[in-house]
Design goal:
Keywords: Membrane, Mitochondrion, Mitochondrion inner membrane, Repeat, Transmembrane, Transmembrane helix, Transport. The chain is built from eleven helices and no strands.
């Protein structure tokens, strides 16, 4: 990330790796109900319903949260949290924590990184993260999408049960279901999120609008969240529908896209836009501010130790 001065001790790749994962988990804990509401709104309108499930109609992000609280209890808003935290520790650690390292790789260690280099770095770490952490994303989406059945039961009883059930019923490939649309989605998200944050922060610092502190990080993160939501929503909706679909419902992600367009029209690709923005905006703010503070805390501690000759 931009903002480091030459005299500062630059955090190592390991510090960025674990710092990004920790910051992402904190952001997930705070914003998870918004993400669950987004998933419920995105799958609403699917022609094929789970047999015996309540066909609940959700209206808006806060209406969705209220309906879920009333009909399924407050715990339903955090359904899939364990898989979500597993996802962030592996996912964000790679796509965010290794972003600077990948930029240096493409620039051969120099500090000058153009827009193309940043986009390449964002695409690379996003794809790497999906390849490793896709099963956690599949389980998270399945948990968030499941509603209480007529007999009071649920599709999955626990996170471990979900991993086992999917692998047994759909094969190991089922855990990587939607991998290609997710790689596409995360390449877009990573580029929009990290590159936009990088560029906004750089512009703010270069023009002297703010110093490298909390207001600067907040502004850059908010802008990155909005840009990411606009660009990534269509791919995100397709990814959610495809990953949550019953075995054989869609032949491919492209078939899912065409089916949505034919049955629901182009507006279907922006279903859940407001919760997506509320979630991505707030998630970006919490994550980037926390991440910057973690790095700053480690840098301060390191500088003090160097000053004491430790």
């Amino acid at each position: 990330m931009v903002g480091m001065k030459p005299k500062d001790v630059v955090p190592s790749a390991a510090v960025k790796f674990f710092g990004a994962g920790t910051a992402a988990c904190i952001a997930d804990l705070i914003t998870f109900p918004l993400d669950t509401a987004k998933v419920r709104l995105q799958i609403q309108g699917e022609s094929q319903k789970v047999e015996g499930a309540n066909t609940m109609k959700y209206r808006g992000v806060f209406g969705t949260i209220t309906t879920m609280w009333r009909t399924e209890g407050p715990r339903s808003l955090y359904s899939g949290l364990v898989a979500g935290l597993q996802r962030q520790m592996s996912f964000a650690s790679i796509r965010i924590g290794l972003y600077d390292s990948m930029k240096q790789f493409y620039t051969r260690g120099t500090e000058s990184a153009g827009i193309v280099t940043r986009l390449m770095a964002g695409c690379t770490t996003g794809a790497m993260a999906v390849a490793l952490a896709q099963p956690t994303d599949v389980v998270k989406v399945r948990f968030q999408a499941q509603v209480r059945l007529a007999d009071g039961g649920r599709r999955y009883n626990s996170t471990l049960n979900a991993y086992k059930t999917i692998a047994r019923d759909e094969g190991v490939r089922g855990l990587w279901k939607g991998c290609m649309p997710n790689i596409t989605r995360n390449a877009i998200v990573n580029c929009a999120e990290l590159v936009t944050y990088d560029l906004i922060k750089e512009l703010i610092l270069n023009y002297g609008l703010m110093t490298d502190n909390l207001p600067c990080h907040f502004t850059a993160a908010f802008g990155a969240g909005f840009c990411t939501t606009v660009v990534a929503s269509p791919v995100d909706v397709v990814k959610t529908r495809f990953m949550n679909s019953a075995d054989g419902q869609y032949r491919s992600a492209i078939n899912c896209t065409l089916t949505m367009m034919r049955n629901e029209g182009p507006t279907a690709f922006y279903k859940g836009f407001m919760p997506s923005f509320l979630r991505l905006g707030s998630w970006n703010i919490v994550m980037f501010v926390t991440y910057e503070q973690i790095k700053r805390g480690i840098l301060t501690s390191t500088n003090q130790n160097h000053g004491l000759g430790v």
